[in-house]
């Protein structure tokens, strides 16, 4: 599965163009522009699984650095400042990775700014 099977190519392009300049990446705005905020919990789960490059169930800082390149191979790498800011915003349990343990869903912590967590729990 690819990201373009969940998100439109035009929306992905729009989101990537908005953050072309270093230190201009804003996760909340990016998710809105690429259309992820309008997707179902299952579609968000699919996107998370695609972004989880090593299939560990978590998105670690090293994977997060290449976040934009998962949407388009020619996209830039996130700066250290952007990577740490993104991780800080999405890492609710401060374990240094985006995901969850036990009964908490990864979709509660990963895009907590994407969709309401009440609807997410039905997917887990």
UniProtKB/TrEMBL annotation:
Belongs to the parvalbumin family. It comes from Cyprinus carpio carpio. Pfam families: EF-hand_7 (PF13499). In muscle, parvalbumin is thought to be involved in relaxation after contraction. It binds two calcium ions. The keyword Transferase does not apply. It comes from the Eukaryota. Ca(2+) 1 binds at residues 52, 54, 56, 58, 63. This is Parvalbumin. PROSITE patterns: EF_HAND_1 (PS00018), EF_HAND_2 (PS50222). PANTHER family: ONCOMODULIN-2-RELATED (PTHR11653:SF4), PARVALBUMIN ALPHA (PTHR11653). One of its GO terms (molecular function) is calcium ion binding. One of its GO terms (cellular component) is cytoplasm. Keywords: Calcium, Metal-binding, Muscle protein, Repeat. Residues 39-74 form the EF-hand domain. Ca(2+) 2 binds at residues 91, 93, 95, 97.
């Amino acid at each position: 599965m690819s990201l373009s099977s969940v998100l439109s190519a035009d929306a992905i392009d729009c989101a990537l163009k908005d953050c072309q300049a270093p230190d201009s990446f804003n996760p909340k705005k990016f998710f809105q522009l690429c259309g992820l905020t309008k997707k179902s919990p299952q579609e968000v789960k699919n996107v998370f699984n695609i972004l989880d490059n090593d299939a560990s169930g978590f998105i670690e800082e090293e994977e997060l650095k290449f976040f934009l390149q998962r949407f388009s191979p020619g996209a830039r790498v996130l700066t250290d400042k952007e990577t740490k800011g993104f991780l800080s915003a999405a890492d609710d349990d401060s374990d240094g990775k985006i995901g969850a343990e036990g009964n908490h869903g990864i979709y509660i912590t990963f895009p907590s700014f994407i969709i309401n967590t009440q609807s997410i729990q039905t997917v887990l």
